[in-house]
Specification:
mainly alpha, 9 helices, coiled coil, 696 residues, single chain
């Protein structure tokens, strides 16, 4: 575009130069016409002056002859001054006529003197007349020669004027032909220049549209990249929220374990008193048995049968009440243990557990009160029995011992059976709970693996699509830019070639025209031609210098403007890219710092969890030594270990996402390097185009 503008400016300068030359030629023609008119006027003036002088000479001669013959009047004294005045008014004839006028004046003076003298001097008058006639003849001959010379000069001037007029006419015809040809060439060049400008405008609009579309595609790609980064950040936030939820779950499970441990400790602390009561009852029963045996041994009376029967009845009642109380206590203890196990296995909340424990405590207190009542009643009955059956005990000792042994063995067998049934039920519940936990863990791990695989596949697909789209966009942009630059270079070369050809043709035509003008002016008017050649050469040199300076100035200005635009575009693109990269790096650094902070928190929590797990394992081993009901706790610990493994896996996934973010940052750095290389290539291409313009 700049070269086309320079070419048009140079064409306009050439047209201005041609107009100046035409104006100068017109002035020369006008000056030649003025010179011709002046020459014609001068010839006419000389002719009229010659005729007037001839008339005056004739009159003078006639007057002299008349005076010589006595019949002619004396010459008029005004003729000589008139001739002198005419010689003064006709400077061209002065060198020729002055001596003759002097002679004529001297002759006229002599004639006047002779006329005034004695008329009797006839001889002298005749001699003077002959001399005057000879002088007149000589003057006529000289006048004829002057007339012939003047006529020849006038004919030569007329011929020269005609030749100059013909030459000027030919020059006018040549100038008209050159002007018409130049107008045709200028019209063709204007048409070609308009076509080139239209093509260049079309190419510029197409390039602008292409650049706009590429910028839109780049904006879409950047938006998609931002959306992808936002999605990844959302996924990272989801992972963080899941990790937080998992941490909360772990904390809640730890609180639940602590609560269950507290419940277990409370249950253990509550269970020994019941066992102590049972053992106290058993010890009391043993003491009663011993005391009854002693009483039976000491009391040997005739009514042993009745006493034995009554004692057996009372003992049976006491055994029934004692067995009922013992069964109630064992049932309550079994119920408390089962409730504790159910709470341990299927705990739904702290409030229900507290209510259940409160109910169990109330029931245990009621059982204790009932046991105390039974003990008091039993003490009273025993006291009454001691008072009534002190003497009947010995007789019933053997029977009582036998029955007591049978009752004890039956009670022990029943308690063993209950314990075995309870152990089997507890083992079955533990097995079922372990199976359920294992199934849930397996299902959860499978779900997590599937989700991770799907997320990894989706992330890989998004990255591949993004990389492919970015590569395609870069290739297309490179191809479009290369094609646009090639087309612009081709158009510039064509325009420069056309401009150079037009310039060479115009210069040749101009030089030929100037050569013809120089030759014609040298043939027509050497001095004027020399001056014109000097003027034309000076004007041509000045115009060439002006054209060169103007072309250099415009090329330098175009280079400077193009360089300024390129620098402005590069600076704007660099600033935008630097801002985008800085923002992305800042966001990435913030995300990395947050991930590292969370990783440190996870690691610290992992260490705390490990320490707590070690403490819990120590407590579990201590509890295992005290009781065999730690299976659910171990199951919970296994579940916590599984959840800890999931947390570790999530931490690994977070580290993978961090590595992916590092990969994205590396890809972004690679993109920045490619963009810098493209800008350097564009600068080199523009510098090459500017150098080509400068060379042209």
């Amino acid at each position: 575009m700049a070269s086309a503008t320079d070419a048009a400016a140079r064409v306009r300068d050439l047209e201005a130069l041609n107009d100046q030359l035409a104006e100068r030629l017109q002035k020369l023609m006008e000056r030649a016409q003025d010179a011709q008119a002046k020459s014609n006027a001068r010839v006419a003036d000389l002719t009229s002056q010659n005729q007037a002088l001839q008339q005056k000479i004739d009159l003078l001669l006639k007057s002299r002859l008349k005076r010589s013959g006595g019949a002619a009047p004396p010459p008029a004294p005004l003729q000589v001054p008139t001739a002198a005045v005419e010689c003064q008014t006709s400077p061209a004839l002065a060198p020729v006529l002055v001596p003759h006028v002097g002679e004529v004046l001297s002759l006229a003076g002599d004639a006047t003197a002779n006329g005034d003298a004695d008329a009797g001097a006839g001889v002298d008058a005749q001699v003077q007349l002959e001399a005057a006639q000879e002088t007149i003849s000589r003057l006529e001959a000289e006048l004829a020669a002057v007339r012939q010379e003047h006529a020849d000069q006038a004919a030569a001037d007329a011929q020269k004027a005609a030749e100059q007029h013909d030459h000027i006419s030919a020059l006018e015809v040549q100038v008209d032909a050159a002007t018409a040809e130049k107008a045709a060439l200028v019209s063709d060049y204007d048409a070609q220049l308009a076509t080139l400008r239209a093509d260049l405008s079309t190419a510029q609009s197409t390039h602008a549209d292409r650049v706009a579309s590429l910028e839109a595609q780049l904006a879409d790609t950047q938006s998609a990249h931002v959306d992808t980064v936002t999605t990844l950040q959302g996924q990272l936030a989801d992972a963080q929220s899941q990790a937080t939820a998992h941490t909360d779950t772990v904390d809640s499970l730890r609180a639940e374990i602590a609560f269950l441990q507290t419940q277990l400790a409370n249950a253990h602390s509550a269970a020994p008193p019941a066992s102590d009561d049972v053992e106290a009852l058993r010890a009391e029963l043993a003491r009663v048995k011993d005391r009854h045996a002693a009483e039976l041994e000491a009391a040997q009376k005739p009514n042993v049968k009745n006493l034995k029967r009554n004692h057996a009845k009372k003992v049976a009642e006491i055994k029934e009440s004692h067995a009922a109380a013992l069964a109630a206590v064992e049932a309550e203890l079994a119920s408390a243990r089962e409730s504790l196990e159910n709470v341990h296995v299927n705990s739904n909340g702290g409030a229900e557990d507290d209510v259940r424990l409160a109910e169990l405590a109330e029931e245990l207190d009621a059982v204790k009160e009932e046991l105390g009542t039974v003990k008091a009643a039993h003490e009273a009955e025993l006291a009454a029995a001691r008072e009534e059956d002190a003497k009947k005990v010995d007789a019933l000792k053997a029977v009582h011992a036998s029955d007591l042994d049978q009752l004890t063995s039956a009670h022990v067998a029943e308690v063993d059976a209950l314990k075995a049934a309870h152990a089997e039920a507890l083992a079955a519940a533990k097995t079922e709970h372990d199976t359920t936990v294992h199934d849930l863990t397996t299902q959860h791990e499978s779900t997590i693996v599937d989700l991770r695989a799907a997320h990894a596949a989706e992330l890989d697909r998004v990255r591949a699509d993004h990389a492919r789209a970015l590569t395609d966009l870069q290739d297309e942009h490179k191809a479009t830019l290369a094609a646009a630059l090639d087309q612009a270079d081709g158009d510039l070369d064509v325009a420069q070639a056309a401009w150079h050809a037009e310039r060479e043709m115009l210069m040749h035509e101009h030089e030929a025209l100037l050569a013809n003008l120089r030759a014609d002016h040298e043939a027509a008017l050497a001095a004027e031609g020399q001056r014109m050649r000097e003027i034309v050469a000076a004007e041509y040199q000045r115009h060439v210098v002006d054209l060169t300076a103007d072309a250099d100035r415009r090329v330098s200005q175009a280079r400077q403007e193009q360089a300024d635009r390129a620098r402005a575009d590069m600076e704007r693109v660099r600033v935008e890219q630097a801002e985008a990269v800085h923002a992305m790096e800042a966001a990435h650094a913030q995300a990395l710092s947050e991930l590292r902070m969370q990783l440190r928190q996870y690691r610290s929590k992992d260490e705390e969890n490990g320490e707590r797990l070690r403490i819990m394992e120590t407590q579990m081993r201590a509890l295992a030594e005290e009781s065999q009901e730690v299976g659910p706790l171990r199951a919970h610990v296994a579940l916590l270990n599984d959840q800890l493994g999931e947390t570790t896996a999530r931490l690994t996934a977070a580290q993978d996402q961090l590595a992916a973010a590092d990969d994205d940052l590396a890809q972004l750095s690679h993109m920045r390097t490619q963009i810098a290389q493209q800008q350097a290539a564009r600068r080199r291409s523009r510098a090459g185009g500017a150098r080509r313009i400068g060379i042209s």
